[in-house]
Amino acid sequence: MAKALYSGSFDPITLGHLDMIARARLICEHLYVGIGANARKTNRLFSFEETKQILEQECAHYPDVEIILIEGLIADFAPTLEVDFLIRGLRPSEDLGGEMQMAHANLKLGQIETLFLMSQQPHISSTLIRELAINGAPLDDFVPKSISAQIVKRTQNKYKEHNGTRNN
User: Residue 40 sits in which domain range?
Assistant: First the structure.
């Protein structure tokens, strides 16, 4: 069996992410879940350390899963872990183009293969989760119950900070 790395910004962590972790760990001996910075995603809801703690709590029952923080490019970082492949999740029709580009870059830069797993959960984007949270929609079907209220509170606070108080 091999070692693999499943990475993302995980901000916020979704049930789709947790489903991918549960399934990915079955096809490798050791799964690293790497929390990395995404230049396109600024203004995090949860700090990297908070995200790490939440993932450690949610994955505590998996002895073969290790939560880590990633610095720099995956293509540069993955060899330091001696992983055999990367794991990426795909939502139907939304992710393929961007994920293929990333996989190609990682192969060219780091000589590391990417294995794609299709999402089984109705995995929605963090952007949509934030939009639902701004409007007070229930999130329990999309994120761990342990962080649902925090997401709503933090999202609404950030919205108010950047756009002023809403008038409904």
Answer: 3-122
Percent of the chain topping pLDDT 90: 51
Q: What is the DSSP string of 2-30?
A: -EEEEEE--SS--HHHHHHHHHHGGGSSE
Question: Does pTM surpass 0.70?
Answer: yes
Active site members:
17, 41, 91, 126
Give the domain CATH number at 49.
3.40.50.620
Whole-number Å distance between alpha carbons of 110 and 70: 15
pLDDT tens track for 13-44: 999 999 999 999 999 999 999 999 766 666 78
State how many domains the chain has.
Answer: 1
Query: Quick check: is 140 in a domain?
Result: no
Helices (H) and strands (E) in the chain, counts: 6, 5
- Asked if the structure places residue 84 within a domain, the reply is yes
Q: Which residue has the tokens 């505590």?
A: 60
The predicted-structure confidence for 74-94, as pLDDT tens digits, reads as follows 888 999 999 999 999 887 666
